[in-house]
Amino acid sequence: MIYTCIPYAPKEHDKDxxxxxxxxxxxLPNDDxxxxxxxxxxxxxxxNWYHQLDEIIKNHPQYSLFTAVTNREYATxxxxxxxxxxxxDVVYHRGIGTRLSEQNYGKVRDVTECSDLPKPPQAPPQETxxxxxxxxxxKKSVWKNIPFRKYYKHDTIFGIDNLIHLDLKKxxxxxxxxxxxYLYHWHRAGQVTLPGDSSKEKGDGLEIPSGLExxxxxxxxxxxxVDMDVKAARFKINQCNGGNFVIIGSPLPxxxxxxxxxxxxxxxxxRKDNMMALYEPTRFASLGRNNIIHK
Length: 295
Fold this sequence. Notes:
Number of helices: 7
CATH architecture of the largest domain: Alpha-Beta Complex
Helix content: 25-40%
Order of helices and strands: EHEEHEHEEHHEEEHEHEEE
InterPro entries: Nucleotide-diphossugar_trans
CATH topology of the largest domain: Spore Coat Polysaccharide Biosynthesis Protein SpsA, Chain A
Largest sheet: 7 strands, mixed
Distance between the termini: 43 Å
């Protein structure tokens, strides 16, 4: 049987989303049950998604975990061709979900083989970065031996989906992509973390999108540091001469423009005592959870 959950880690568990995943898996009654996790800002786009997942499980017993395709995600191999990542019309996405379900209802692509480090955008899907957990469908009997774990034990909700993919691969289990199961993912729509977004400048400062206000105010000891970082960010953009950056992390498609908020975010990270951020001009670009290397 499939049990569905939107996982959440309360404050007393310090953003430990792995704890939330594992607590839910614990209560599944049988070893042949499956836990289906979806992000809090995601939704299935068809009425028959449950029956579709149930059929996929029965027809593909060689897989221990499945994920799905979506409209916005860091692992771009999970985005079907032709999807408009900037379109947030639910009718549009339900149409895509219906079409993909009809064309690929029970089809699964083996995506087990990935790399611990990202490959260039032209690399085939199975050789790129680990899955992003817009949807994770995981078998309890396998989970008992390979539970979810916190991303390198630091305080973040991110990276758990990447780790479970790598852990399963290392243990010899197979991971499948259900190419006929399509979820709509809000994923910071209107902000600048994915291709097609842009930052908004205001004078010599920066208009920070909703949810990123922490870049300003209390996190800077001196008020002028915000303006200092804006100047440093603009200098780095000029150094690139219109090219792209690499920031330690997963590459985004080469058409991604480097914007002011990306560089400002990096400058902010450089001020943290326990972190360092590295970047150089190159044909790759990325922004997000994998950009920070912990000392």
